[in-house]
Amino acid sequence: MRRKNKIMAALLACALTAAGTTSALALENEFHGMYRLAAVDSNYLGSQAASYYTYNGSNMFAQDPKTANIREQHPATANFLDQRLRLMYIARVDEELKLVTNFEINSRWGDNNYGAGISGGGAVGADYVNLRTKSAYLDYTFNLVGVPVNSRLGIQPVADSYKGIILDNDAAAAILSSKIGATTLTVGFSRFADNGNLNSYSATTDYTGNGEPTPNTNGNLFGGGLAVTNTNGANGAAYGDVSADFWTLDAKYDINNNVTVGASYYLLYSDIAKKLSSTNATAKYRENVHMLGVNAKGKFGPAQIDGFFVYQIGRTTDRDIYAFAGNLGAKVKAGPGTVKSEFLYMSGDSGTSSGRTSSFAVIGGEAGYTCSGLQILSRDSLVMSRNNAFFYDNNAGMGVVLGVIGYELPLTSRLTANVNAGFGAVESVNSKIVAASGEYLGTEANVSLPFRAKENLTITPRFAYVFLGDFYKNLAANGKTPDNPYLASLLVNFKF
Predict the structure, then answer these.
(1) What average pLDDT does range 254-267 have in this prediction?
(2) Which residue, 70, 217, 245, 327, is most buried by CB atoms nearer than 10 A?
(3) Tell me, what DSSP letter sits at residue 472?
(4) Partners of 87 in beta bridges
């Protein structure tokens, strides 16, 4: 018995010693996430191929005049269920150091099974490989000459300071930020494409098929639309020699507890077209867009107001750029609810000049602006589909004019009513891209009723309808005008 007690004491001592030596390396494990199920009935979203109301990825055009890709007047009604799961794991060493990862699984019920891809597994049998990495970065805060600096290194969410109109998506980046008194400084670097590999931004990215470059496509922004052959060897180039890079510098200053002002300088640079184009080895096909912006937000009595202005100069591969964008948003307490409004202007181009453009350059397919409250005219913040908005990026280089007003009214402690009305238009019609009769895209009215079933579970019925403008007049088959689009959806949203 005495021998057994000695053995137990020795084992306990070893365990305590091991615990003491490893406590400094112990991790705090955090799990967060989101599950969303959307039941949709629509003659717009999921109804036709993306080009019914679209042109090459932007849900706004009914036909392509260059290829006579004309759709029927009456799009079919679609009904489907789509689910999205996001899982975030954070390995936290302490308050200064953590590793952040975020993964995503998407499926549409009945889509496919026993395969692999970016979305699938909704069919009977289900088994599918579609786990996607959204984020994988190191978050480390350190002191530099007595100043705390936060660094984020790796694949992470990257957004501009202008409501995502330039970039709002995931990217591999290095971002450093520090707050000194009332001033916050942030610098960042991201490599969008490397080794001449444009990935999905292929050399065939060209909206018209007739040599008309449109600056909102990454293929053209990075040079893919001009790199007809690969004389230097895209996959044989030294890493970093043939690339597209994005540099950012942001400064924000808190005037007081209610007012903040900011300024930015962004640079989008690509030498892909210059180094890979064989048509003219000496051509100066360098993407070199400088972006200068100011922004502000403040609370003034019952009103919260924010806005920005961004100006772009430089070169978009084969033309000089002089473009700008502006925004004004407001929230005002009115009676038992809140009035909300948004206005966005983005300069466009009619395509009449070959040497310069006034089309505001964005990172095609990776930009956002989901704050409007609209469900069809601009990108929906809840049912996220790349082709779910009339306003998409910069409308194929033709610019944006968008205005919205809405009212949020609490009905009970759990139920809220949101109503919104808005209009959308292109700033300039480019007849080389689409044979539109006018600039007006349409007017949207929508309503949603989010119900908080539990603290982290919300159930939301929604309905949106758009009265099409003269932009779409006579653009369907046989000179007809497309039906007005609608979107009815029921969302179940769980966060943890």
Answers:
(1) 97
(2) 217
(3) G
(4) 33, 103
Q: Which pLDDT value is given to residue 136?
A: 98
Tokens coding 268: 């989008």
Euclidean distance between CA atoms 13 and 112, whole angstroms: 56
What mean pLDDT is predicted for residues 362-368? Answer: 82
Hunting for tokens 């009035």 — which residue is that? 339
**Lowest-confidence segment of 27-31, 152-156, 203-207 by average pLDDT:** 203-207
- Rounded distance, CA 65 to CA 71, Å? 12
Percentages helix, strand, coil for the chain (3-state, rounded to 5) are: 10, 45, 45
* Calpha distance 315→292 (Å, rounded): 14
> Can you spell out the DSSP letters for 399-428?
-EEEEEEEEEEE-SSSBEEEEEEEEEE-SS
Coil, strand or helix: which one is 360? coil
pLDDT band at 58 (very low <50, low <70, confident <90, very high): very low
The phi, psi pair for 406, rounded to 5°, reads -145, 165
Residue 285 pLDDT level (bands cut at 50, 70, 90): low
Considering only CA atoms, which of 29, 60, 121 is closest in space to residue 442? 60
Which residue has tokens 């942001």? 250
Q: For 311-351, write each residue's pLDDT tens digit.
A: 999 988 778 899 999 999 999 999 999 999 999 999 999 88
Q: How many Cα atoms are found within 13 Å in the side-chain-facing hemisphere of 192? A: 28
What average pLDDT does this structure show over 132-148? 95
Say if residue 206's pLDDT is above 80.
no
CB neighbourhood size of 439 (10 A): 18
For residues 379 and 452, give the distance between their C-alpha atoms in angstroms, rounded to a whole number.
24
Q: Which long-range contacts (CB under 8 A, 24 or more apart) does 64-67 make?
A: 64/209, 64/434, 65/434, 65/435, 66/208, 66/209, 66/210, 67/209
The model's pTM: 0.86
| Percent of the chain at pLDDT exceeding 90 | 52
Q: Are 261 and 253 in contact (CB under 8 A)?
A: yes
Confidence category of residue 62, pLDDT binned at 50, 70, 90: very low
Start-to-end CA span in the chain (Å)? 51
Q: Which domains does the chain have, with CATH numbers?
A: 29-495 (2.40.160.100)
Which pLDDT does position 78 carry in this prediction? Answer: 83
Q: Give the residue from 93, 99, 50 showing the smallest Cα distance to 75.
A: 50
Report the amino acid identity of residue 396: A
Do 419 and 338 meet the contact criterion of CB atoms below 8 Å apart?
A: no
Q: Pick from 436, 424, 423, 430: which is nearest to 473 by CA?
A: 436
Q: How far is CA 348 from CA 163, 309, 391, 420, 428, in A?
A: 19, 15, 13, 26, 5
Could you give the count of Cα atoms lying within 13 Å of 228 in the half-sphere of its Cβ? 5
How many whole angstroms from its chain centre is CA 96? 29
Q: What ranges in 211-348 are assigned the alpha helix state H?
A: 218-221, 272-276
- Name residue, tokens 């004004």: 328
